[in-house]
Design brief:
single chain; DHBP synthase; 10 strands; about 20% strand
Length: about 200
């Protein structure tokens, strides 16, 4: 199924997440393969559809920093970067709390950290707020292949197993920064450049 109008179908899209469906959707970076991050079976399907190694983790979208604090430890360094670049194309890898219950364990596979982001997308923030829980959002592709660029390509790759939302995405991924206590490491440079990250940590 391809949904052509986001605004006319926000409630239906939200219900798709609630039912545990897998959704290909446009973001402020790449097209993403997405599901309710608390639904372990839906998360399992994303690993299956992407042919992704189960030892790896999946990035997660949140609506706001308060929601992230329920799941991860957010220190001053992370907060400085968040205030400068969120909502936007910065993914922070943060220590995950032991007692969190918003994220299914197979999202991070019992690891010690989680990749989190607040997307610069009004419709995605509305959906996450309506769900009152975060969503998995990983690049829409078979692992090792280029991400899909539009809904037609998504249909070829993932066929009728997914709900596809038509729209536009940029073709540059987010920048990934891992936070370690008072230090950080740039894992991947994307839309936000390394010198901008350096300025944001001062």
């Amino acid at each position: 199924m391809i949904i052509k109008s986001i605004n006319d179908n926000l409630q239906y899209i939200t219900e798709c997440f609630m039912r545990g469906e897998i959704i290909v959707l446009p973001t402020d970076t790449l097209f993403a393969l997405s599901c309710d991050a608390s639904n372990a079976e839906a998360v399992r399907k994303i690993f299956e559809y992407k042919v992704r190694e189960k030892e790896k983790s999946l990035p997660v979208f949140f609506a706001n920093i308060e929601q992230i604090r329920q799941v991860c430890e957010v220190n001053n360094l992370a907060l400085n970067l968040a205030e400068r670049f969120w909502p936007g194309a910065l993914t922070l890898v943060l220590p995950i709390k032991n007692n969190q219950n918003l994220i299914a364990e197979n999202v991070y596979n019992n690891g010690e950290s989680l990749a989190v982001r607040i997307p610069d997308s009004a419709y995605l923030q509305k959906i996450i707020k309506e769900l009152d829980k975060p969503i998995v959002a990983t690049s829409a592709n078979i692992s090792g292949h280029a991400p899909v660029k539009d809904s037609a390509e998504a249909l070829k790759v993932f066929d009728e197993r997914v709900v596809i939302i038509e729209g536009k995405s940029k073709h540059l991924p987010s920048t990934i920064v891992k936070i370690n206590d008072r230090d950080y490491k740039v894992i991947r440079e994307g839309q936000i450049k390394i010198n901008q990250i350096e300025e944001g940590t001062l």
